[in-house]
C-alpha cells in the first residue's frame, strides 16, 4: 500500500491531493457506469415489452416491463445488506470494484437474451433474473460510493463532492438517452425493434471494464484504514446497525423519498411518459428529457455547495416543499403536449428541485453514522426506501394513468413522496455532523 495517508492518534487522516482526486474519479465514474447500465432499461421499455412479452395487449406488456423494473428493486436491499456489511468489514474499495463488474455483466446479458418469439415464457423469466442481478449490484453501489466519497472528502466540501454521485447517475441516464436517440434516428423502426435496442446493453461491458480499472487503482479510504489500524472494525455491522442506529436508518429512509421517487418518476420514466401521453416526435421527446437531465445535473453541485454553507436539512426541506407545491402544475404543462418549450421549462424546474433533494442527501446520510457502521446503515435506509417507493414509480405512474384516465396522475405520487420527506426532516436531527463526531463514534 502506498504511503498516501497520514494519520496521528486523535486526528483525522488526510489523503494527499493526488490520491483524493483519483478517489473522486474512481467513485464518480464508476457510479456513472453503474447508473447508465441500470437506467437504460427504462429508456427502451416499450421495445422490451414487444420483445419479451406477448403483443396481445401493449399496456399489459408495458406494465409487465415496469413490474420487472420494480421487482429488481427488491433485490437492492439484499445487495445493500450483503455488500454494505462486507464493505464495513473488508473495505469500500474492493466491494465497489466487485459491484461494477456484476452490474456490467448482468446488463450485457440483457442485450444478448433471446426474445419471447424465440423461447416463449423463458424470455421474461431470464429478463427478470438479469434485472435482479442488476438490483443486487445497485444495492451495494450507492452506499459504498457514498461512504467512499465522503470519507475521502474534506469536511467543507462533502456536500459538493458527494453531489457529484447523483450527477454521475443523471449523466449516465443522459448518455443513454443520447445513444438511444442516435440509434432511433439512424435505424428503421423494424431494425430498432429487432436488434437496435440491444446496443445500449452491449456497451455496458467495455464501460464496466473502465470502471473496474479505475476502482482497482485506488486504495481504501483514510477513515477505513484508520479503523482497521486501530482494530475497531465491527465483526457484525448489520446487527450493530439495526440495534444501535435504527432511529437514524429510519431518518435516512424518509429523507430519501424526494430523490428516490423524483429520480425514477421524472428522470428515468420521462421518455416513456412523453411517448405515452404527448404527441411530441422522437426529437422533441429527447430534447425535453435532455433538458430535464441537464437542469438536474447543473443544479446538483450548486445545491451541494449550498449545503456545505447552510447545512443539509435546510436544502433538503426547501426543495421538498417546493416539489409539493410545483409538481402538479408542472405535469399539467408537460401533459398538454402542445409546446415543447413549456414542457422543457416545467421539466427543468422539477429536475432542479429534485437536485435539491439529492445533492445533500449522501453527505447527510454518511454523516449520521459512525465509520464502522456507515455503509451497512446507509444501505439499509436508502435501499429500503428506493425499493418500496422509488423502483415502483414507473409502474405506479403507468398504473395510475391507466386506471384514472388522468395524464397528470404521476404527480400525485411524487407530491406524496416529497411531503413524506418534509415530515421526516422536520422532526429529525442528524447524528454525527462533524469530523470530531465521526472520529469519536469510530
UniProtKB/TrEMBL annotation:
Pfam families: MFS_1, Sugar_tr. It is found in: Cell membrane. The keyword Transmembrane helix applies. One of its GO terms (molecular function) is symporter activity. InterPro entries: H+-coupled_symporters, MFS, MFS_dom, MFS_sugar_transport-like, MFS_trans_sf, Sugar_transporter_CS. May be a proton symporter involved in the uptake of osmolytes such as proline and glycine betaine. This is Putative proline/betaine transporter. It comes from Mycolicibacterium agri.
Amino acid at each position: 500500500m502506498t504511503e498516501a495517508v497520514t494519520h496521528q492518534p486523535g486526528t483525522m487522516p488526510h489523503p494527499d491531493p493526488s490520491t483524493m482526486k483519483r478517489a473522486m474519479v474512481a467513485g464518480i465514474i464508476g457510479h456513472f457506469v453503474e447508473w447508465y447500465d441500470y437506467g437504460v432499461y427504462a429508456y427502451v421499455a416499450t421495445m422490451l415489452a414487444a420483445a419479451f412479452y406477448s403483443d396481445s395487449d401493449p399496456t399489459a406488456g408495458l406494465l409487465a416491463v415496469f413490474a420487472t423494473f420494480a421487482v429488481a428493486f427488491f433485490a437492492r436491499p439484499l445487495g445493500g445488506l450483503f455488500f454494505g456489511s462486507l464493505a464495513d468489514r473488508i473495505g469500500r474499495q474492493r466491494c465497489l470494484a466487485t459491484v461494477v463488474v456484476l452490474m456490467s455483466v448482468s446488463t450485457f446479458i440483457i442485450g444478448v437474451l433471446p426474445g419471447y418469439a424465440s423461447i416463449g415464457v423463458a424470455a421474461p423469466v431470464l429478463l427478470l433474473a438479469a434485472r435482479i442481478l442488476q438490483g443486487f449490484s445497485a444495492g451495494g453501489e450507492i452506499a459504498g460510493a457514498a461512504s467512499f466519497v465522503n470519507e475521502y472528502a474534506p469536511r467543507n466540501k462533502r456536500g459538493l463532492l458527494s453531489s457529484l454521485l447523483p450527477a454521475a447517475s443523471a449523466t449516465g441516464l443522459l448518455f443513454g438517452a443520447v445513444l438511444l436517440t442516435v440509434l432511433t434516428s439512424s435505424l428503421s423502426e423494424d431494425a430498432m425493434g429487432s436488434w437496435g435496442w440491444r446496443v445500449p446493453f452491449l456497451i455496458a461491458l467495455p464501460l464496466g471494464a473502465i470502471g473496474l480499472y479505475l476502482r482497482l487503482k485506488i486504495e481504501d479510504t483514510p477513515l477505513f484504514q484508520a479503523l482497521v489500524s486501530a482494530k475497531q472494525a465491527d465483526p457484525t455491522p448489520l446487527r450493530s446497525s439495526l440495534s444501535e442506529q435504527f432511529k437514524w436508518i429510519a431518518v435516512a429512509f424518509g429523507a430519501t423519498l424526494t430523490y428516490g421517487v423524483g429520480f425514477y418518476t421524472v428522470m428515468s420514466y420521462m421518455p416513456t411518459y412523453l411517448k405515452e401521453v404527448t404527441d411530441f416526435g422522437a426529437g422533441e421527446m429527447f430534447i425535453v428529457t435532455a433538458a430535464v437531465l441537464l437542469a438536474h445535473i447543473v443544479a446538483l453541485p450548486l445545491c451541494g455547495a449550498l449545503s456545505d454553507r447552510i447545512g443539509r436539512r435546510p436544502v433538503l426541506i426547501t426543495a421538498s416543499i417546493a416539489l409539493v407545491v410545483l409538481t402538479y402544475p408542472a405535469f399539467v404543462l408537460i401533459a398538454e403536449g402542445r409546446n415543447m418549450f413549456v414542457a422543457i421549462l416545467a421539466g427543468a424546474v422539477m429536475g432542479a428541485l429534485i437536485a435539491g433533494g439529492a445533492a445533500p442527501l449522501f453527505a447527510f446520510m454518511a454523516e449520521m453514522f459512525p465509520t464502522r457502521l456507515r455503509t451497512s446503515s446507509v444501505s439499509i435506509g436508502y435501499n429500503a426506501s428506493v425499493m418500496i417507493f422509488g423502483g415502483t414509480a414507473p409502474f405506479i405512474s403507468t398504473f395510475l394513468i391507466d386506471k384514472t384516465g388522468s395524464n397528470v396522475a404521476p404527480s400525485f405520487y411524487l407530491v406524496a413522496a416529497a411531503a413524506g420527506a418534509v415530515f421526516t426532516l422536520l422532526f429529525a436531527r442528524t447524528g454525527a455532523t462533524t469530523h470530531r463526531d465521526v472520529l469519536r463514534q469510530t
